[in-house]
Amino acid sequence: MDHQKLVKDCLKGKSQAQRELYELFAQPMLGVCYRYTRSVRDAEDVLQEGFIKVFHHLKQYKQEGELGAWIRRIMVNTALNYLKRNRKYQEEMFFTEEYLHPVTDDDPAIRLQVKELADLIRQLPQGYQVIFNLHAVEGFTHVEIGEMLGISDGTSRSQYSRARNLLITWIENYSVEKKKASYAGK
Amino acid sequence: MQENEFEKRVQQEMGEFRLRPSEAVWGKVEKQLRKKKRRRVIFFIFMLAGLSLLGYSGYFFTKTNSKQNLVQQDNNSLPGIEKTGTGSNKQPASPTIEGTTANDQAVTNENQLSPIKEKKQNEKKSNVLNNEKSTIAEHDIAVKHKKRTRKISPENPVIAKSAGNRNVDKTRDNTQPAENQTRQNDRSSTDPVDKANIARQDIAKNNLPQGDSKTTEQKGADKIADQKINEPAKTDSIMASALKTDEAIAVTKKKQPGSKIKLGMDLSVGISSSSSHNAFSIFDVAKSAVLDYNSPGNSTGGGGLGGYVRISPSDIKAGPAFRAGVLAELQLSKRSSVSSGLQYVYLSNNISVGYYSDTTVVVNNSFSQSSRVDAIYRGKHQKEYTNRFHFIQIPIQYQWQINKGTRLPLLWSIGASAGYLLATNGLVYDTAANGIYYHDDDAFNKFQFNLTTGLSFRFGNKGKIQWSLGPELSFGMNKLMKDDYTKKQYLLYSGLTGRLFFQKRNK
Hints:
Largest interface: A-B, 74 and 57 residues
Helix content of chain B: 40-55%
Largest sheet of chain A: none
Strand content of chain B: 25-35%
Structural class of chain A: mainly alpha
Oligomer: heterodimer
Order of helices and strands of chain A: HHHHHHHHH
Distance between the termini of chain A: 46 Å
């Protein structure tokens, strides 16, 4: 699809083009927002706020990278801002300096559905959840994460390793429980 | 660093993760987009209305002045004055004091008018001179006529006697000529009116039939004498008409109203700050949302003490502010008016910041994008920083006189203004790097809408220059900054406003 033409039409203020852009990216972006929040309602709030900013600052998009990646960055930052100003999430958004957990070489087989994996990620403590999403899913380095969240890169690493180990444990337990359930069903 | 397969798998799985949003989400997004469009349209309509009012008031002001000048010119060239002038041509005014005064008044009135009227003045002067010449000529004619009648008419015993005395009594040549001379002298010494009267008396004594028996020259002399007798009456009528003309001028002058449009200057000095709650929190020191991440040992996932404390945003203190501009006021009724203009506004507030650092930091800018800034203020608050804002704005205000008296009118004003942020050095707070301040022009809303209200006393209502003085308050209706994830800011201003109006009045 020709995103350049779509962007131009959106900048002209054509409502049909704006709707088309929204329809193109709304579902994957809601998936992004869902991973940072605790509820679908909060995720939709973040999505709404994010798309308003996308249309408002669309003229800043310089056609250098993919439009989807540009929108995704806006969604992630909107989600972080939402967490920062929302008291419900502020209480859990803390980062502590702990001993560095070694990254294991375990490669657990992820036999979960995508949504199940996303739900497990959302069950992580808020701080772990954010850092895990930023590093494992979005691909930010620990240095970048440290700058975005105002923490040191060492804190980011330790928080991430803790989150990772916790998630792996849950995945394995979830997989075992799922097998048991399927055997029981048979 | 070798990427772990786990991360790769997670990335891949999450990349394919989609959720369908509810229809209400797009509805809210669309509503916001239309709202922003409407705000821009309202702002431009506001600007157009203000500029139109300025332009119309300027046009109306100049047009009213030119009309007043034309009316004054017309009044000075009314028929009454012209008739006086022409009347002096047709019916020469006697060189009396009254007549001279009337003409002089007309001349002085004309002298007060524009130079174009000098021609009329000159015409009138020449008319006056002509009048005097004609009166002298008539006097000569009357004298000559008298002489002729004495010589010619034998039926006039007075004349005949005098003539006869001359002819018969030659012996009395010494006396008769003397008598005649004295008579002539007497007659010549008297003015033409008296001579005419004397001639009539003589005619009456000699029982001479009048009318047909008179010669044409006698009749002409009588006519002139009659004219001379009637001249004072005619002069009085001319005077009366001149007086009426003056009265008419005075009346028309009174009827012409003063200009409804006044142009003036506006100056206001005060203090400004920003409110975090709404537009009606005056002089509130804006409290910042404390974003420290203290961890009191929360059990969920975290552990232990040793929480992490971030530097919170500074409190905002009031700073000096002022406003200057030009405006036009349109009088709607005796007690109400509306005004608009163009103003420059300077606002400021003070915050506390840490030390300056040329460090590159990644922040979430107003576009919710990560951006790098190269100069920041970081660390514990240790020095004052003044945020300065320069606006240009168009106000529209409605004024209403609270009291009924005209000695010292007290006016209450209410209005709104639309402003554009020309420049600012304002700092933006971000939680990055333990809490920093940095400068970003794009973080501020360029368009600002304010509500204003105030009271003022107006002075000099009967003169050309009017001025007013009184307190004024202004409240921002929209946020100062685009992104408000730390706190909302609305601009506030309070100060003393003085206005100077210039009004051209009719003399």
